[in-house]
Specification:
single chain, 0% strand
Length: 239
């Protein structure tokens, strides 16, 4: 595997429709926001639902496709950073995209950066695109599920272990599918750290991506042959 794609022009041309798709997802959720507000949803609740929907439809769908469309993490990283810049510009002008952004934080920008950097770093280190998409999928799907569950129960952005239980189910399935026991371990750590954040320095997107990436690197490097059955025996869970 090399840093530069085998056919750079081809992969840029592939990335452009995905880039447009992401922007369409972002801007199409404005209509959903308007409908939720008209139906009596609190503004912060509508914004939070939209963020999680964008996580799933943009971050999640694209992450799933990356190993099948790209031979290098370079192009996905560049486009993720471009989207981060596009989303950051409204914050600099104090003209946030009100249907999913808020002046209180720029966590959606952090999401794009963490998505791209975790994918890039793991791909280079572990040399496997399927391992590399695990942290982005944890952020896109796992974090989205926990947010939706908590939002539906508490009608505000908050932390709750009920939401983390939902996240654990989703991330465990993803982690096991792509990396077996190594992925399951990463899922557990990612779920735990999601419960905590240090605003405005660190949000859960950064913590999930960083923790799951480190976990995968360590377990794949030092415990290459770790099997799920062995892991279950270590924690004394029934098979």
């Amino acid at each position: 595997m090399t840093l530069v794609p085998t056919d750079l022009l081809r992969e840029v041309l592939i990335a452009i429709p995905l880039f447009i798709y992401v922007l369409l997802v972002v801007y199409s959720t404005k209509k959903l926001y308007d409908r939720m507000v008209k139906r009596g949803f609190k503004i912060n609740v509508a914004i939070y639902y939209n963020r999680k929907l964008i996580h799933i439809l943009a971050g999640g769908v694209v992450a799933f496709l990356v190993p099948y469309l790209f031979t290098s993490p370079l192009v996905p990283l560049v486009f993720a950073l471009v989207i981060a810049v596009i989303l950051y510009i409204p914050h600099t002008k104090r003209k946030e995209l009100s249907w999913f952004q808020t002046g209180e934080n720029a966590y959606e920008v952090n999401f794009c950066i963490a998505w791209g950097l975790s994918l890039f770093g793991l791909w280079l280190i572990l040399k496997n695109p399927y391992y590399a998409i695990i942290p982005p999928l944890f952020m896109s799907l796992g974090d989205a599920v926990t947010g939706i569950v908590r939002n539906s129960i508490y009608a505000r952005r908050t932390k709750s272990w009920i939401g983390n239980l939902a996240m654990l189910i989703v991330t465990t399935i993803i982690g096991h599918h792509y990396a077996g026991a190594h992925g399951v371990i990463a899922a557990v750590f990612a779920t735990i750290v999601e419960h905590f954040e240090i605003p405005p320095l660190l949000d859960d997107n950064v913590l999930i991506a960083t923790t799951s990436s480190i976990s995968l690197i360590i377990t794949k490097t030092f415990f290459k042959n770790l099997e799920l059955a062995t892991l279950l025996q270590l924690v004394r869970l029934p098979l």
